[in-house]
Design goal:
By secondary structure, the chain is mainly alpha-helical. It has two domains: about 5-85; about 85-115, no CATH class. Helix content is about 65%, strand content about 0%. It is built from four helices and no strands. It has helices at about 5-40, 55-85, 100-105, 110-115. It is elongated. The two termini are about 35 Å apart.
């Protein structure tokens, strides 16, 4: 594997580790919410003090799903590194700017193509 591909692989692996840690934390939070609600008789749907347990549960679950989707995108990016397609826009084929790839290692499109949406 050439030096550039190795650097991209490492960048993706680092980002994947961060997202995996975030997902694990969200899963722990979700379990804590569920466990906490089992032992409580609070009527959270009518609690004027703040958000409901159902809202907290839905928010954490949504964030976890986002993290799972991000992991899938990073895995797909790792596949593009292996095939040599990494860093090329899947729509127009031009090289995606290094700054964009640094900020979003799983980016599939260049800025110009993203703006066309």
């Amino acid at each position: 594997m050439d030096e550039c591909a190795e650097r991209n692989r490492e960048r993706i692996a680092e980002e994947r580790a961060v997202v995996s840690a975030r997902l694990e934390s969200l899963q722990r939070q979700f379990r804590a919410i569920i466990d906490g609600s089992r032992w409580s008789t609070d009527d959270d749907e009518h609690d004027p003090e703040g958000s409901t347990i159902a809202f907290e549960r839905a928010t954490v679950l949504s964030l976890a799903r986002d993290a799972e989707a991000e992991l899938r995108e990073l895995d797909a990016a790792a596949g593009r590194v292996r095939t040599g397609a990494y860093g090329r826009c899947e729509r127009c084929g031009v090289a995606i700017a290094d700054a964009r790839m640094e900020a979003l290692p799983a980016a599939r499109r260049c800025i110009a193509c993203v703006r066309l949406r």
